[in-house]
UniProtKB/TrEMBL annotation:
Lineage, uppermost ranks: Bacteria, Pseudomonadati, Pseudomonadota, Betaproteobacteria, Burkholderiales
Protein name: Lrp/AsnC family transcriptional regulator
PANTHER family noted in UniProt: LEUCINE-RESPONSIVE REGULATORY PROTEIN, TRANSCRIPTIONAL REGULATORY PROTEIN
Domain of life the protein comes from: Bacteria
Ranges that cross the membrane: none
Species annotation: Paraburkholderia kururiensis
Length: 156
C-alpha cells in the first residue's frame, strides 16, 4: 500500500468509515460526492487492498463497569526470545489487556489494562500479570481522565 495511490475521494471514504463503520452506502456516497455504485466499488477496493482491516463496535467501559484504566510498564531481567514469545502469547489471551507494545527505553513492554476498580486491578496484578513468563518488575500509571481515545488513524 502506498498512500500516493489514494486520491481525495479514497481518503474521504476512509475518514468516513473510520468515524462510522456502519454508515449506509447511500450516505457515504453523498458524503464523498459520488453516486452509490462507484462509492461501493471504491469501498470494496479499499477493503481488498488492506486499507480497511475490519469493522468493529466500540463498547462502553462505563456500561461494562470497567472504571480503571492503567498503563503498565513491564520489565524483564533476562532478554530471551523464547521467553518474550511466551509472554506475548499469554498476553494475547488476556481480554483485559487492551493493548501491548514492545518498546524501547526503560521498560520492555507497555500494556493498557482495564479493571472494575482498584481492588480488581490489584488482584489482576498479583495473580496474573506478575506471574507472566519473564516479568521481573511492573510499574503502573493509572489514568485519571481520558482525554482522547481511539481517535482513529490520520488519513493523509
Amino acid at each position: 500500500m502506498n498512500d500516493l495511490e489514494l486520491d481525495r475521494i479514497d481518503r474521504a471514504i476512509l475518514s468516513a468509515v473510520q468515524a462510522d463503520g456502519r454508515i449506509p452506502n447511500a450516505r457515504l456516497a453523498e458524503t464523498v460526492g459520488l453516486s452509490e455504485t462507484p462509492c461501493a466499488r471504491r469501498l470494496k477496493r479499499l477493503e481488498q487492498e488492506g486499507y480497511i482491516e475490519r469493522y468493529r463496535a466500540m463498547l462502553s467501559r462505563e456500561a461494562l463497569g470497567l472504571g480503571v484504566v492503567a498503563f503498565v510498564y513491564v520489565r524483564f531481567a533476562v532478554h530471551d526470545r523464547a521467553l518474550a514469545d511466551r509472554f506475548e502469547r499469554e498476553v494475547l489471551a488476556i481480554a483485559r489487556i487492551l493493548s501491548c507494545h514492545n518498546v524501547s527505553g526503560s521498560a520492555d513492554y507497555i500494556l493498557q489494562v482495564v479493571a472494575r476498580d482498584l481492588d480488581d486491578y490489584g488482584t489482576f496484578m498479583r495473580d496474573e500479570l506478575r506471574c507472566l513468563p519473564g516479568v521481573t518488575s511492573v510499574e503502573s500509571s493509572l489514568s485519571l481522565r481520558e482525554v482522547k481515545a481511539n481517535g482513529g488513524l490520520p488519513v493523509p
